[in-house]
Design goal:
The structure holds two protein chains of two kinds.
Chain A (H helix, E strand, L loop, with lengths): L4 E3 L2 E4 L5 E6 L6 E7 L6 E7 L2 E5 L7 E4 L6 E5 L8 E8 L10 E2 L3 E5 L1
Chain B lengths: L8 E5 L4 E6 L8 E7 L6 E6 L4 E2 L4 E4 L5 E6 L8 E8 L14 E6 L1
Parallel strand pairs in B: 1-9
Antiparallel strand pairs in B: 2-7, 3-4, 3-8, 5-6, 6-7, 8-9
Classes of the chains: A mainly beta, B mainly beta.
Chain lengths: ~120, ~110
Amino acid sequence: DTGVSQNPRHKITKRGQNVTFRCDPISEHNRLYWYRQTLGQGPEFLTYFQNEAQLEKSRLLSDRFSAERPKGSFSTLEIQRTEQGDSAMYLCASSSWTGGSKNIQYFGAGTRLSVL
Amino acid sequence: DAKTTQPTSMDCAEGRAANLPCNHSTISGNEYVYWYRQIHSQGPQYIIHGLKNNETNEMASLIITEDRKSSTLILPHATLRDTAVYYCIVCPPDNYGQNFVFGPGTRLSVLP
């Protein structure tokens, strides 16, 4: 169990550029979540997948944001035409959901995006 | 919006118990109380969760009031490494994304 891995850890880009982040979940975890966190706030939900299906998207996820999990393993989050307001920490989490009450999310260390 | 309210910050002396309160007066009957913490520059870390009975694991204890409108996370012997932001979250058993809402949390400072 190597934990949830996110790459890159830091990304600096210019306004208007596209960026893509990658998340590798814990092996065999069927659920994968994306969150965004700004300074002084708790993480905000963006979207989640169960296997390769994207089951839920937040209204925060504008049409410039797209997420994929093509084979039910790793996931990518792309932001097109970045804006300064997109500057934040992007967190990925995964969980093994088999029903019942326990659905513990394990988080990666995040990708910090700075849009200049 | 978060369904919980927590104090913005707390201090605790190293070696003493840290008691972090959380109010969730609108909690539904099937919603669980989860606690996570986030150490600086890391992702959140699961601590414990419960429905109505008190729970204990190797990290902490969770005390939920009988009416379930509030709970307390107890770190029995706080260390400097417990300095973090602690989040209390209420969520139904299958914690779908939008129901899993982090508020601003409580910033716990463990002092030497």
